[in-house]
Amino acid sequence: MATFRAEVFQNEFLPDGGTDVHAIVTVTAEGVGGAVTADGGVAEVVMIDTSGSMTGPTLEAAKHAAQVALDHIPDGTWFAIVSGSHVAQRVFPYPNARVAIVQMEPGARAEAKRAVAALKATGGTAMSTWLRLADQIFATQPAATQRHAILLTDGKNESEPREQLTAAIRDVTGRFQCDARGVGQHWQVDELREISTALLGTVELIADPADIADDFRALLAASLARGVADAQLRVWTPQGGQVLFVRQVAPTVEDLTARRTDITPLVGAYPTGAWADESRDYHVAVRVPSRTVGNEQLAARVQIAVGDEVLASGLVKAAWSDDASLTARISPEVAHYTGQAELADAIQEGLAAKAAGDEATATVKLGRAVQLAAETGNEEATSKLRRVVDIEDEEHGTVRLKRGASRLDEMALDTASTKTTRVRR
Amino acid sequence: MVTAGAPDAAVCPACGEAAGPGARFCEACGAVLAPAGASTTPDGTAAPSTGPADAAAGVARPAAPATPGEHGDPGDPDATVAGAAAPQGARDGAPDAADAEPTPCPACGGEIAPDGYCLECGARAPRERDHVERRASDDVGGVSDVGVRRRRNEDALALGTAGDVAVLVVCDGVASAPDSDRASRAAAQAARDLLVGGLGAVEAPAPDAGAWSRLLVAAGHAADAAVRAAVDDAASREDPPSCTFVAALAGPTLLVAAWLGDSRVYWLPDAGPAEQLTEDDSLAAELVAGGMTREQAERSRDAHAITRWLGADAEDATARTVATRPAGPGWVLACSDGLWNYGSAPDVVAGLVRDAVDRLGPDPVAVARDLVGWANARGGHDNVTVALARVAGPAGTDVAPGTTAEDDPGTVPTVRRRPAGSLAGGPRTAAPPTA
After folding, report:
1. Strand B330-335 relative to strand A146-153: parallel, antiparallel, unpaired?
2. Domain carrying residue B174
3. Suppose B393 and one of A76, B70, B168, B328 were both cysteines; which one would form an S-S bond, judging by CB atoms 3.0 to 4.6 Å apart?
């Protein structure tokens, strides 16, 4: 039986006239158990890039990885394979099959492997068509409520305008979750990040095609460990209050603010997708009307809900005080994750400036990133930053852009920018 | 003692959360679960004790302190002061919280969620302890209030009677140490229980200053032990929960007070000069001892730093005691610094009580409520607790004011005090200096 709990870390004391309340809410799921695949509640779609650029060892590695994935999709799971270029095509079930998705069983597995082995690389890349086809396939099996997809590409989304991809992402958001993987150095981190962020997945760089199979295996294991198909984060604010932002801050930074749907005028719901036994941190910031010193009130109820049932609730408080020793303190959790969110922005903005040839801005932003990574103890970010900049003074964020930094190193830094370290408690 | 007679399945009187057998604090809101009415009658004492009274006294729920006369008219015997249904329900093992209509939010009229906050405006629902009224008898009562500027009432009040002797205990949680509200509640109840039980153990409590002093010192130690037990692992904190302690035994012919810290007992005779019986264990008191005026000392920056207290980091929980023999009728008043911050001199306190009695009559709860309201009207920077006992004075002796009873020379007043320099422990801030 899955249980959730919510812990709140904050300094609830506000000075006279203070209105803004920040809290880190740690949501932990326990006893979730794995996804139950046998009764047909789980569906997986694997999207493989078969554009012309994949020709050669990359395509062979991708085919091998897809076949490994098929071995790791348990019997009973609904599945389909999509090949993507400037158009998307269903590879299995075969295009002429009567159904768009089938339940895994040994015969289907063997036939699907054969279909994957026959893939040829040709054409361009228009990922909007891949996402829309995956969505159509999932939609044919409404009973499968836990829907997960893997998207693998090696290149830019070059066969369509960006707006077309953005529109497709918007249309399929909330319909399934998707992890995006880029092979090699010719794909665009921001394109895949747009997909994975909206579809509550992850984005990763796979530098060596030989590593795709291991990654797929890990992705499926993670997906199948999620025994709670869909949970919502709900935030109640009082009459007259407003949500400033709601951000997932661990394990990765994801801004959820714009993802709100109203449950009631006072309660908004934010999607969090499927859950395994895990813990995630959320930074919730709300603004409430100021009250006189000595008053205490609730600034937010932060709840985790599955279906219509609230499974855990954390209370974010506001207490007005004239004791500066209470009000001046910043919660270490809030400070830590504020720094980590800024770190992600600094890395992305720094790399974007560098790509645009603005070395001055890039140096300042990446210097700030070095400083924040050190302050918040994010060693992975620090080590990835070292491959892109020469650090002269970590504490003050003084850096020089590394001449001849490889594109792969920059992409690795970019994809990892949203990963956070947990606050030390 | 605390659990004697308590129903096995208790329900938190503050928030309605079910509590396991033997639980002393509510898992949901942290309120203490000593069930009113069921818990505090000292069983096994054959004494003419009417029992400690916060038992029956009940839970005052109003957002604002009740106005005088609204609950429990003066002279109404054994009246529960407010919220009579609550202790009754608990006594019957049928907790009212489950059955009662949910009280709407006092701020906006919205529904109060089980988490204790309004579902509409987020205002905190009043907690039981925000405003507590207690009555032990017609002559013994008290009020404890959160005040205006504090979030939580860390003062605690416990009253009782044993024969014609009133028992008053006031403890003030040390604001700088978290969870001191638990400390003060445990201390006050433990001391009261020991005092009522100790007096009740003898057939007719003899007005023996030495015996009463020893009993009060024992009560201080019991309170200290209760604090350590109540705060569990918090005792190992650097700043463990702690509180002041003041207790008074008030009989017709003898008053004995004991204290650690800066909560006080005043003796306010109807005729003759009022007196502060206790002498604060505080930096301010040491400044006065060093020659500073009381007004200057109490305005000084660390005036509220106390030098003795109860709790895991207290070096010595042996209360100092003082005894006096009333020559005639009057009031014994025990209070936390939330009151005397606004009127420290004995004649000021006496004037407040006299004025309240003139307006409201001699009901101790009504008078205490009036004094609490007075402190709140002056800013209410701290929690305010006032306990009062009406003392009849020696029977048949209508002694002239200020004269000494001839059969007891040298005992009016008999004051035993340690020299100020003998205090143990370093200074400690009981409360931030108030504006």
Report:
1. unpaired
2. 48-65+128-429
3. B328
DSSP state string for B155-210: EEEEEEEETTEEEEEEEEB-TTSTTHHHHHHHHHHHHHHHHHHHHHTSSS----HH
Measured distance CA(A394)–CA(A367) in Å, rounded: 8
Residue type present at position B262: D
Question: Cβ(A70)–Cβ(A110) under 8 Å?
Answer: no
Distances (CA, A) of B156 to A229, B376, B385: 50, 17, 8
Mean pLDDT over B306-334 rounds to 93
Q: How confident is the model at residue B428 (pLDDT cuts 50, 70, 90)?
A: very low
Q: Is residue B275 part of a domain?
A: yes
Q: Residue B90, CB half-sphere, CA atoms under 13 Å: how many?
A: 29
Domains and CATH numbers, chain A: 3-32+230-329 (2.60.40.3670), 42-224 (3.40.50.410), 333-416 (1.20.120.1690)
Sheet holding A296-306, edge to edge: A13-14, A309-320, A296-306, A228-236, A267-275, A261-264
Say if strands B310-311 and B320-324 run parallel, antiparallel, or are unpaired: unpaired
What predicted TM-score, i.e. pTM, was given to this entire model? 0.70
Residue ranges for chain A with pLDDT beneath 50? none
**Higher model confidence: residue B281 or residue B106?**
B281
DSSP state of A174: T
Q: What is the pLDDT of residue B151?
A: 80
**Domain assignment of residue B36, yes or no:** no
Q: pLDDT tens across A343-361, in order?
A: 999 999 999 999 999 999 9
Q: Is B100 on the interface with A (CB under 8 A)?
A: no
pLDDT tier, B403 (very low <50, low <70, confident <90, very high otherwise): very low
Residues of chain A contacting residue B117, judged by C-beta atoms under 8 Å apart:
297-298, 301, 315
C-alpha Rg value of chain B to the nearest Å: 20
CB B168 within 8 A of CB B278: no
Residues of chain A contacting B115 with CB distance shorter than 8 Å? 298, 301, 313, 315
Number of domains into which chain B is organized: 1
CA B9 to chain centre: 28
CB contacts under 8 A, A 98-137 vs B, are none
ipTM value for the complex: 0.79
Question: For residues A16 and A14, what is the distance between their CA atoms, to the nearest angstrom?
Answer: 7
B423 in any annotated domain: yes
Asked if the C-beta of A15 comes within 8 angstroms of chain B's C-beta atoms, the answer is no
Residue reference for tokens 């991708």: A62
A170 class by beta-carbon count within 10 Å (0-12 exposed, 13-18 middle, 19+ buried)? exposed
Residue with tokens 């002269």: A392
Q: What is the pLDDT of residue A120?
A: 95
The reply to whether B114 falls in a domain is: no
Say if residues B274 and B333 touch (Cβ distance below 8 Å). Answer: no
